[in-house]
């Protein structure tokens, strides 16, 4: 039996301290004089090579990653905002006869927060297979498309977050438990039909069955009322007392904790005594109409190097998908003790290929007691 892993307050505070102290050393930052000397000694800095990446991630955050890449290679990355809704064809829908997906002109590759967005991009026919032995052999099969159209490069989990002043952490064990009546009016979630929450439902179907899982979804709906739009809204609601517990992506919580060191929120890794926590990944794919595919491929392969993985994890609050072997990387900064958890082993492609939409159980409307008595009297 696996040990239930929880985020201890002292561990979280210590991790935040380590994060602050290590930020300069890991990113390779230096003072302005050192940078000028490096540019003078290293002619690669004046290279005019560049390419574009479409993304729904925070561009300011990604710019720190691309700055490090440019220092190494001299290649400039231009980040272009891409809303995930642009991929009008969903991976779990019947494909239409015509595809009308318009990406910003000049985008060579995509780097999106969720693998399900890349699956939608693939279904929308905007990606091409990437014939890279480096990617195929380095990225675990769990986080790659069998056809080579997308690769996960920074993983995170669907985690449970709670207000430590209102919730005893021992009350929390798994996703299904949030359907208990004690959480009525206290649960915050995004829509149960989102790909991320449907993945949880599909996992629960494998061990809770076709009868119990729809009931759990219905209880989630009852407990949360109206769904919230995103991770940020859930975290803010719990912090402000609007609810006590919720399901969010772990990178959202980790990023929030870095900027709110005195937060009352804590994270718990669910399903640690059976299947493990559901994971997702920042994912990359090559645009079919891309022009600078060579430059894009070079960056893709850099992302799965030890340094690329360390920097990506550091800046995006995700976790490496590979085992970093470089001894100079400060792993305590990237994977503090409290972030160690047991992940679910189901390959992401299995959730994508499972086109079922798990519906909540439809409950009969309750008849008010007085009305019921009156009906019986008439009969």
TrEMBL record:
<feature type="compositionally biased region" description="Basic and acidic residues">
    <location>
        <begin position="355"/>
        <end position="366"/>
    </location>
</feature>
<protein>
    <submittedName>
        <fullName>Putative binding protein component of ABC iron transporter</fullName>
    </submittedName>
</protein>
<dbReference type="Pfam" id="PF13343">
    <property type="entry name" value="SBP_bac_6"/>
</dbReference>
<dbReference type="GO" id="GO:0030288">
    <property type="term" value="C:outer membrane-bounded periplasmic space"/>
</dbReference>
<feature type="compositionally biased region" description="Acidic residues">
    <location>
        <begin position="367"/>
        <end position="379"/>
    </location>
</feature>
<feature type="signal peptide">
    <location>
        <begin position="1"/>
        <end position="32"/>
    </location>
</feature>
<keyword id="KW-0732">Signal</keyword>
<feature type="region of interest" description="Disordered">
    <location>
        <begin position="355"/>
        <end position="379"/>
    </location>
</feature>
